[in-house]
Amino acid sequence: MPQVRSIWNGAISFGLVSIPIKLVNATEHHSISFRQIHTEDGGRIRYRKFCEAEDKEVSGAEIGKGYEDADGSIIPITDEDLAHLPLPTAKTIEIVAFVPADRIDPLQMDAAYYLAAGGAPAAKPYTLLREALKRSNKVAIAKFALRGKERLGMLRVVGDAIAMHGLLWPDEVRAPEGVAPDTKVTVNDKELDLADALMDTLGEIDLTELHDEYREALEEVVAAKAAGEAPPETPEPARGGKVLDLMAALEKSVKAARESRGEGTEEEGAEGAEEEAAEKAEVTRLSARKSSRSTPKQTDGKKSTSTAKKTAAPAKKATASTRKSTSKSTSAAKKTASAKKTASSSTTKKTATKKTTPRKRSA
Question: Poorest-confidence range of 72-76, 123-127, 255-259?
């Protein structure tokens, strides 16, 4: 265990088992903090604490706690008063239940701590509790007092250590009333498919690869100012067109995510070929189904006879229609032949007339 200052010393109450422990912060913040200064001369701005009764500045050792009553009067509360609170959790993390981890609402999660074993005598019961939590796949719900108030906690195993997450009391979590949109919206399957495709394209990520880019940029600004240089300019963000169509926005998002991961047109072409092959296979299946349905099933003699009659009826209709069309074509042929004969006879008459007409002699 790293040499970190403990913020609370006590014990874990596990039935009749008591495990001496030290509470250590499990998280730390790396954000850059600023001081308030006077902009004209750069002087520090400090807050001094004054007593209203004597109108003078007081030190931290002279400052205590007090509760303001409804009428405005102050009731002094000393550390001795707080030490005598009738709470079994004043110096004890009292385990009250063991529940599955998914029963804990993430909204209740608060600060995280490590529970360090308090000396050699605590090693055995500490290990016992850790292994029991591992085997049960459950977390322990506990109550403890810290910084002047009783809190709720969740104990779970992290590596070879036991960690405790502070939990908000259930009545401290607000209900999400009035947060969701009150407009009735319908989402179709195609939009959900595109959203799933975007989720699959983005995929998973190793959280250790993520880092605070804002803090890094702020450190560069501070370093440049300290060196008397101009701070780096902020690059302009890419301005995209205003997309009003949700489908278009999803499609562009999927495309952009694929390009950022180096997935080019080769995969798109392969996907297109797969989709085309799938469509062809589906068409083949459908045509096969239709052909199998078109073949009648003969189960007994009656059904086959009725089927034959039904088949014969359209055949007779087809024969009758064929005869009608044949007769129509025959009559048309006769009309054509008679027309040809009439035309040839008229031509013959004209020729004969020309031959019989005498030519006039010139005088």
Answer: 255-259
For 124-181, the DSSP string reads HHHHHHHHHHHHHTEEEEEEEEETTEEEEEEEEEETTEEEEEEE--GGGSPP-TTTS-
Residue 30 CA to residue 7 CA, distance in Å, equals 19
Q: How confident is the model at residue 64 (pLDDT cuts 50, 70, 90)?
A: very high
Q: Which of 270, 246, 265, 269 is nearest to 198 (CA)?
A: 246
Phi, psi of 149 (to 5 degrees): -155, 155
Which pairs count as long-range contacts for 153-160, CB under 8 Å and 24+ apart, including other chains?
A: 153/93, 154/104, 155/12, 155/93, 155/95, 155/115, 155/129, 156/101, 157/130, 157/133, 158/114, 160/130
The type of residue at 165 is H
How far is it, in rounded angstroms, from Cα 143 to Cα 134? Answer: 21
Q: Are 294 and 311 in contact (CB under 8 A)?
A: no
Is 309:296 a contact under the CB 8 Å cutoff? no
In DSSP terms, 24 is beta-bridged to 114
State how far the Cα of 145 lies from the Cα of 312, in Å rounded to an integer: 95
pTM: 0.58
The mean pLDDT of 337-360, rounded to a whole number, is 45
Cα 297 to its chain centre, rounded Å, is 52
| CA 231/CA 224 separation, integer angstroms | 5
Residue 2 tokens read as 């790293």
Answer whether residue 173 shows pLDDT above 80. yes
Q: How far is residue 311 from each of residues 163, 196, 292, 319, 322, measured CA to CA in Å?
A: 82, 52, 18, 13, 17
- Render the burial of 253-271: b for 16+ CB within 10 Å, e for the rest: bbeebbeeeeeeeeeeeee
213-249 per-position pLDDT tens digit: 888 888 989 999 899 998 888 777 666 555 557 778 8
